[in-house]
Write the structure tokens for this entry.
Amino acid sequence: MLKINTRYRNTRKKTISLTNEGHDQLKRYADAHGLTFSAAIETLSLVGMKADLTQLLVPLLNDIVAAGLARNFNRLAKLSIQAAAESAMTHDLTSMLLLQLIRQEAERHPADFEDRFAVSHDPTVQPDFRIREVYNHMRHMARKRQKRLMGQPLQQLLEQYAQVEPAVAGTESVALAETEVGHA
């Protein structure tokens, strides 16, 4: 395929006659591939004359890939922005909570606070198993929030991240979480 912007300066004007059927087919081909009518005629003519297909297909593949990236740019930007913002926020919040928890344990049990942080996977060890259940429930709620965020438009996400005061979880989410933890 010939690129429109690179071939424009290197063309000569010719007048041709086409049947209505031929014209319509060429127009559909040109529209489908993002070409001018003249570029479509030239491309198909060169293919018909058995020109080197690699010279014709490489620009076509480049155009297809570029068009695909252009169509999905907002989606890619949205995913990148969301991942970076959520990751940074999660890291900061988790670090703050962990440090506070370590401080509390160190103050209560200065001799062995390090040993108190292990949580068993064994379902017979209580309250460790209940702690894991609460953790799994919280993780499930976080995944649901993540899926909801993925459905939002890019502009809405950018506005949310630009807020000085972040939105607090709704009371219905908190009540639902408390109810489901109580039933676990």
